[in-house]
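#struct-pred

JT: dropping the chains for the assembly here, can someone run the whole complex?
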Amino acid sequence: MSNKLGVFGLEGKVAVVTGAGAGIGEACARMFAQAGAAVMLSDINVEACERIAAELNAEGLQAKAIRLDVTSEADWEALKIALEGWKNRWDILLNNAGIYIGGMLENNTVAQVSKINQINIESVFIGTRTAAESMKPGGCFGSGGSIINLSSIAGLVGVPGHSIYGATKGAVRSLSKHSAVEFAKFGYGVRVNSLHPGLIETAMGDQALQDFVDIGVVANVDEAAALLKSAMIPMGRLGNVQDIANAALFLASDASSYVTGIELTVDGGFCAA
Amino acid sequence: MDCNDKVALVTGAGVGIGEATCKGLAAAGAIVVVSDIDEAAGNRVANELIAAGHQAVFMRLDVCDESRWHRVVSDIVARFGRLQILINNAGIANICGIEDETLEGWRKTNTINNDAVFLGTREAIRVMKASGGSIVNISSIEGIVGDPMLPAYNASKGAVRAFTKSVALYCADKDYGIRVNSVHPGYVATPLVSGALSRLSTSDAEAFAQRVVASIPMGRMAEAAEIAKGIVFLASDDASYMTGSELIMDGGYTAR
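RK: done, full complex below.
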């Protein structure tokens, strides 16, 4: 596969994917490995990463697993040292790990907001800082790179039950733009872009559907999915993890060499309507 | 990013982004119909593709000519049996302030940049709706943000951006399996940019170019091939869940 990809290939590159143990993160890690990258799969659930890495290794692809709590500066430092010891290279960071907390705004608590901000925003800050300082000229890896931050359409438009989650994704969108412009202006050779999936068929997507039930928008999860498909998603289907992995590959690869600071929506037309 | 055996039509394909897109699509396995109003330029591109072992053909197309669109698309279907990709790329730019713009100049820019995209998109849907396809409309960062010296170009590219979303929703509603997206290049080192600059005095052109490059965080204009890669992505099935989206490739220009 990797030879067929041409400029979309990742041969010789090293990628880190956070939250790689399931869902979009897992699909992206598999995609990057198939495209020729050596992929460090990271998650607090390291067992899941180890299983996926073993599967990829069995296919002759390069992958390794590491435990990473994305909110821990020490864990990020350990990740950097692990990369030095593995390929002594780092080209791609996919900041994917995140959580969803729904509910009506008036029922959300400050504790919930602090928690989701820490996991969805602070982690992206720490990861971006770690990657940029090691990818920039003179950094320990020093050959530039591409950082992809998973935001959401909830970071672009309003959705009931999504206030505190959407706020974190809006922050990720903005952090991506500012860091993209800063790194470009200062000649880091590090591109930063945000990726905005619509509702994707994952465990987190199921949580969001359940939340529409919990806040009383619809009677049950099936009705929630039906409403989304018929009235909110022009293409009439939920997204799948491969839809997102394909777009992540574009942003990770040299195919997007002039792309920085953008928002790439992969949403079946949701935001166009 | 695979376009194997898909039949693709590219307008304004004799130079610049159009030419680079033909090469990108051909490298991804597509059968490329190179169209342009300039026969010499279009034939050159088609011949280069054929010499490189790709399947390509030149068809003359004035994108403002409704009957010609019908003829070219019908010829493609007659010859290849299908059309799965349309890249509405042809366009012009004229650098001048609003007070110096003429109605004639305004109409010329909007006819080529906007009316032609309507004609091509409508014609492509006619033949794509049976088995699906991907239409990529080349807008610009100037369809998102303003430039004081590009009033007609700004208006035409903004129209393409919104039109693209309308058609994306229409095709999705109708279940045609046709995705429609817009591409927004920043400043690219192409004949469109150098041509527009050449119509200014040397000092004005230098001032314009300096202002532009100073505004690009990455500090350089794009190469046409860099824009082509994003267009090929949207054309391919790898963009399967993307419709009505905007793909900006601008070195950070609009992120500022």
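JT: nice. Helices of chain B lie at 16-27, 39-51, 66-80, 103-128, 151-173, 191-198, 202-215, 224-235. Residues 114 and 156 of chain B are 5 Å apart (CA to CA).
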